[in-house]
Write a structure and sequence with these properties.
single chain, alpha/beta, FAD/NAD(P)-binding domain, FAD, five-stranded parallel sheet, oxidoreductase activity, Quinone-interacting membrane-bound oxidoreductase complex, subunit QmoA, iron, 4Fe4S_Fe_S_CS, 9 helices
Length: 424
């Protein structure tokens, strides 16, 4: 490490991003005594994991991993959590950074008990982005049932009448529409970027029909449909008519391994579709499930066994071939797809009730590049420069990864951040 030993060293670490890897990074550093600023742009911690029904390797619900981490955060005086906050600028060098952060107003203070009385009287509705716009929620809302902090948010679009109603409904004087945006500077010695990933924008994949046909959904939308706190309370149904799907197709590598979109493999998509097949099988024992793939990648013995078990299901069909065309059947909402079976050479034409696109993960930093002296690869992932030190990327900000790999990586980057603060 090339840190100048004559420069002052801050004893604080900033973790940018409060998803599962950000939580791990923050806790690993704080539990050995370092002050940590945990910065999250959303109104709650939890990241993508909070949107899942189950996650590998144990197929746990999000509560399994998040609740214990939230408890550890609450019990640790070294962690300062800043939600609805984004990094505006980073100046300085390893050991001595000045980070400017901007916090948007929540319009709800710490008196909030999450009683929900504000939502009962609010009539203004907004798109529910937590469910990828598949339903709507009140403009007075709790981000989700595992929110941390467990505190409501008042959307700025709320009508004047509703603002008066929610203030009157709150028994705890928690609603404060006089809150303003705040910008502050924080001194830290190291920064770990855990900015995570976004589902690739499937509307950009012209030939697969997303955005044109209601019964073409993405893998993350299916995850929300299957979740008890999702738009259908866990029932997987077709968006067009709430019908129980009898035939479901998965189009793997939807936008991944494609020079026109994401040229790399997103690592998690194959296992996600295999997991989704189990969701469907639990609800619909006789449904027929077709998985169209280029290569099925199941990294590790446990994942390979999971795949092997699904291959025993006589109603799950694996087709080695990429979905090339998608259209909608007149009058039914069913989806017609065309693919080529690369083993037989035959062109396949099939009609299904529901098509699920296994869209890949795009690093958030590729879409919203941090204002800091970082190195990025061609795909927008942050490249770690260990010789320079000071700033590091963990989890899916650094590479496509599952939860286990992200957490292992986050632990390592917490150690790298600590090393920046320790003078030799």
């Amino acid at each position: 490490m090339t840190t100048d030993n004559s420069a002052p060293v801050s004893g604080s670490i900033m973790v940018v991003g409060g998803g599962i890897s950000g939580l791990t990074t923050a806790l690993e550093a704080a539990e050995v005594g370092y002050e940590v600023f945990l910065v999250e742009k959303e109104a709650s911690l939890g990241g993508r994991v909070s949107q899942l029904k189950h996650y590998f390797p144990k197929l746990c619900p999000p509560t399994c991993g998040l609740e214990i981490n939230y408890r550890r955060i609450k019990d640790n005086k070294h962690i300062k959590v800043l939600t609805m906050t984004e990094v505006q600028n980073v100046d300085g060098s390893p050991g001595d950074y000045t980070v400017t952060v901007k916090t948007a107003p929540r319009y709800v203070n710490e008196n909030c008990t999450a009683c929900g009385e504000c939502a009962k009287v609010c009539e203004t509705e907004i798109s529910n982005e937590f469910n990828f716009g598949m339903d709507r929620r009140k403009a007075a809302y709790l981000p989700h049932n595992m929110a941390f902090p467990m505190r409501y948010v008042m959307d700025p679009s709320m009508s004047t009448d509703d603002r008066d109603k929610v203030k009157q409904a709150c028994k705890y004087d928690a609603v404060d529409f006089d809150m303003e945006e705040k910008t502050i500077d924080l001194k830290v010695g190291a920064i770990v970027w855990n900015t995570g990933w976004k589902p690739y924008d499937a509307t950009r994949i012209d030939n697969l029909g997303f955005g044109r046909y209601q019964n073409v959904v993405t893998n993350m939308m299916l995850e929300r449909l299957a979740s008890l706190n999702g738009p259908t309370q866990g029932k997987i149904v077709r968006p067009s008519d709430d019908k129980a799907p009898e035939t479901i197709a998965f189009a793997q590598c939807a936008g991944s391994r494609d020079e026109n979109h994401l040229p790399y493999c997103s690592y998690i998509c194959c296992m996600a579709s295999l997991k989704h097949a189990t969701y469907l099988r639990e609800q619909y024992p006789d449904a027929k499930i077709y998985i169209y793939y280029i290569d099925l990648r199941t990294p590790g013995l446990k994942y390979e066994r999971f795949y092997a078990k699904l291959k025993e299901d006589k109603n799950i069909f694996f087709v080695k071939g990429k979905v090339a065309e998608v259209s909608e059947e007149d009058g039914t909402g069913n989806i017609n797809l065309v693919a080529e079976d690369t083993i037989s050479g035959d062109k396949i034409r099939q009609t299904v009730d529901l098509l699920v696109l296994a869209t890949g993960m795009q690093p958030t930093a590729a879409v919203d590049k941090p204002a800091a002296d970082l190195t990025f690869d061609a795909d927008g992932f942050i490249v770690n420069d260990f010789s320079k030190g000071g700033m590091f990327a963990a989890g899916c900000a650094n590479k496509p990864a599952d939860v286990v790999t992200s957490n292992q990586n986050a632990t390592g980057m917490a150690l790298k951040a600590i090393q920046t603060l320790v003078r030799r």
